[in-house]
Design a protein that fits this description.
The protein has about 140 residues and is of the alpha+beta class. The chain has a single domain, classed as Jelly Rolls (Sandwich), CATH 2.60.120.680. The protein has two helices and nine strands, in the order H-E-E-E-E-H-E-E-E-E-E. The strands form two sheets. Strands 1, 2, 4, 7 and 9 form a five-stranded antiparallel sheet that branches. The N and C termini lie far apart (about 65 Å). About 10% of the residues have low confidence.
């Protein structure tokens, strides 16, 4: 029994790192093109998400710049997920819940901190095997013309 504990413990520690590396690779290969002429902010904001989960990212956005948010995800969950952008009072400024859009372009009149919330709803998958996939939030910016 003791001989099994160490390999199981090592496997449990390695799986999240392997999943994170796969997600980073997916993001590099599949998620940069929709930023088009926007400059990526250089931050990696990705994770493996399961149906029924949500994640929130806070970031400061500056006046005088145009922004593009792109939520990139693997096909296994891309049709069901949606994202919202909220101000510090939790007022929803944008939601893709009913549109299915994955890109949001915007400009702010003043510098402020916004929260981006990504939701992967429960899909009622049979046999309790929840679908999962990599989800990345890409942030691009450019100076206003």
């Amino acid at each position: 029994m003791k001989k099994l504990i160490l390999p199981i413990l090592l496997l449990a520690l390695a799986v999240p790192q392997f999943a994170s590396a796969q997600c980073k690779s997916f993001t590099k290969k599949n998620c940069r093109e929709p930023l088009e002429d926007y400059t990526g902010n250089g931050q990696y904001n990705g994770a493996v998400m399961f149906e029924g989960e949500e994640a929130t990212l806070s970031q400061t956005f500056y006046s005088g710049q145009d922004y593009r948010l792109f939520v990139c995800s693997q096909p296994s969950i891309s049709d069901s997920l949606y994202f919202e952008v909220m101000d510090y009072r939790k007022n929803v400024l944008y939601s893709s819940r009913n549109s299915g859009e994955k890109v949001f372009d915007f400009t702010l009149e003043s510098t402020q901190q916004l929260k981006m919330r990504v939701v992967v709803p429960s899909l009622g998958t049979a046999n309790n095997l929840k679908k999962n996939g990599c989800v990345s939030i890409m942030v691009g910016f450019k100076k206003q013309e």
